[in-house]
UniProtKB/TrEMBL annotation:
Pfam families found in the cross-reference section: SNF
TM regions (residue ranges): 6-24, 45-71, 147-165, 200-224, 244-261, 273-296, 332-357, 377-402, 408-431, 452-472, 492-511
GO biological process: amino acid transport; sodium ion transmembrane transport
Residues annotated as binding Na(+): S247, N279, L344, D347, S348
The family this protein is said to belong to: Belongs to the sodium:neurotransmitter symporter (SNF) (TC 2.A.22) family.
Provenance organism: Dendroctonus ponderosae (Mountain pine beetle)
Record protein name field: Transporter
GO cellular component, as recorded: plasma membrane
Membrane topology, record value: Multi-pass membrane protein
Main location: membrane
UniProt keyword Oxidoreductase present: no
SUPFAM superfamilies named among the record's database cross-references: SNF-like
Compartment(s): Membrane
């Protein structure tokens, strides 16, 4: 059932806004904040996007630290999540390989016991060896950071700093010598062939192996069979919207930052289509891989698959290790899988932090241009700040804070960022101007589908999702732990701190703009390049009906 709202939000929400961000970044060649010279009233949208991207780094990089911990554990003599003979295992630990046909024909009572109390070695390794959740009962009992995870986190942030401190090289914004650039392109091209294809090779091998296991087809059937009654639950629609915007990257400002380094006539339309198709195929394909092994685990344990599937990052760190353990040469495949996961994750993490760095440095360029090593020092400040906050997530109670960040830092606030971005560009900046920008870059105008989505469908979809998400919001829960009221307040404060940038930015812009109230509004909703003409002629294009009714 999740695929239905996911597909609708993809087609009518995320993809049109993704294309819009590529257009805006490439045409204006500005970061996600300074870009709003096109409509100064909405500069707060840029600050909102940058804050959301920064907040996500507080917990997203922790996932990479977990993956690095798993990578290190893969080098041991025996994969520690293959058996129940470790010091952290409990009496509830059951190895899948020890369960036979007799176990699966147990009585209903015993099945209920299995469902509620039996854990796989991979489950206990993640929760007890990595997270050490046995030492914490909630947010009131956080404990001290686990030193092994701290080391992993330091290594991840060091890798991010090395990748970011010199910035993105581009002939349009930052230049490098022709020879050096050619060498970089040749090297990057060779690396991309490995990093882009390796995930599909590993996933394909895991899928083939998974299909050979008993119960795999049951898992795939569960994956493809829609449970239409779930569509009545508003949280399914909210989760689908957040997931697709998160997956495509719309609303974060990341694509605005990266597209600003494109050449002016780069075919961003082609980039949009290829990226979204590959992204959706990868998500769908990964689902097949996961559910073959969930079907296998369900078959072995003799319980319904819905009791095997878990939510959140635990799914990756419980199902895939179990999957890798079934392969011949499991150590090698484990190393390859977690190395692949780290490389893909670092790439995404770089995008979020690059949005923060580029956005603020472009907006305050006069300050940074006067200082030597400004990029290197500012990148270090951003990295250290993010690392300091992320440390709380590697304590025994860190998973509870992780879930809090995951729920509130890029949920409703991400959708609000995308919503006001769509409104600002399609209604205030104007579809007529945006169409002219596309034609100047690509030699063609965007079709009616794009224009209607930008102006009506995408904003309407997001408004509905946000409204129903707020009306039917449920108290935050992680597994059996119910969050206290103060934690909910912290979460909403986190979300509102980024959302409030939008009205705050508008108020500041209106206050600092000289003139009468009408003149302030006129200048605030018009591109900076038109301000001189507006002051001289008193003619404001955005006060005309033609501007608002253009499709």
């Amino acid at each position: 059932a999740f695929l239905i709202p996911y597909t609708l939000m993809l087609v009518f929400g995320a993809v049109p806004l993704f294309y819009m961000e590529l257009i805006l970044g490439q045409f204006n060649r500005q970061g996600p904040i300074s870009l709003w010279r096109i409509c100064p009233l909405f500069k707060g949208v840029g600050f909102c996007a940058v804050l959301v991207a920064f907040y996500v780094s507080f917990y997203y990089n922790v996932i990479l630290a977990w993956a690095l911990y798993y990578l290190g554990s893969s080098i041991s003599a025996e994969l520690p999540w293959m058996h129940c003979n470790n010091s952290w295992n409990t009496e509830q630990c059951w190895e899948l390989r020890s369960l036979n046909e007799t176990n699966r024909s147990m009585s209903l009572v015993l099945n209920e016991t299995l469902k509620n109390s039996k854990h796989t070695p991979a489950f206990e390794f993640f929760h007890r060896a990595v997270l050490e959740m046995q030492w914490s009962d909630g947010l009131h009992e956080m404990g001290y950071p686990k030193w092994q995870l701290v080391v992993c986190l330091i290594l991840i942030y060091c890798l991010l700093y090395v990748s970011l401190f010199k910035g993105v090289k581009s002939s349009g914004r930052r230049t490098v010598s022709v020879i050096r650039k050619h060498q970089l392109c040749q090297f990057s091209g060779k690396v991309v062939w490995v990093t882009a294809t390796m995930p599909y090779v590993v996933l394909s091998i895991l899928l083939v192996r998974g299909l050979m296991l008993p119960g795999a087809l049951g898992g795939i059937s569960y994956y493809l069979q829609p449970e239409l009654s779930k569509l009545k639950e508003t949280q399914v629609w909210v989760d689908a919207a957040v997931q697709i915007f998160y997956s495509v990257g719309a609303g974060f400002g990341v694509h605005l930052s990266y597209a600003s380094y494109n050449t002016f006539h780069n075919n961003c339309y082609r980039d949009c289509i290829i990226t979204t198709v590959v992204n959706c195929f990868t998500s769908f394909f990964s689902g097949f891989v996961i559910f073959t092994y969930l079907g296998y685990m369900s078959h072995k344990q003799g319980v319904d698959i819905k009791y095997v599937a878990t939510e959140g990052p635990g799914l990756v760190f419980q199902v895939y290790p179990e999957a890798v353990a079934t392969l011949p040469g499991s150590h090698l495949w484990s190393v390859l899988f977690f190395f692949m996961l780290i490389m893909l994750g670092v790439d995404s993490a770089m995008g979020g932090l690059e949005c923060v760095i580029t956005g603020l440095m472009d907006e305050f360029s006069s300050f940074f241009r006067q200082r030597k090593y400004a990029r290197e020092i500012f990148t270090l400040i951003v990295i250290l700040t993010s690392f300091s906050v992320a440390l709380i997530n590697v304590t025994p109670g860190g998973i509870y804070m992780f879930h809090l960040f995951d729920t509130y830092s890029a949920g409703i606030s991400l959708l609000c960022s995308a919503l006001f971005e769509a409104i600002a560009v399609s209604w205030f900046y104007g579809l007529d101007r945006l169409t002219q920008d596309v034609e100047a870059m690509l030699g063609m105008k965007p079709g009616i589908y794009w224009r209607v989505c930008w102006k009506f469908i995408s904003p309407s979809f997001i408004v509905c999702v946000v409204m129903f998400g707020l009306l039917y919001h449920q108290p935050l829960v992680y597994n059996d732990y119910s969050y206290p009221n103060w934690a909910e307040w912290v979460g909403w404060s986190l979300a509102l701190s980024s959302i409030m940038m939008i009205p705050l930015g508008a108020i500041i812009q209106l206050c600092k703009t000289p003139g009468s109230f009408k003149e302030r509004v006129a200048l605030s909703i018009s591109p900076v390049e038109e301000h001189e003409e507006i002051r001289r002629s008193k003619l404001v294009r955005r006060f005309r009906a033609k501007h608002w009714f253009y499709i």
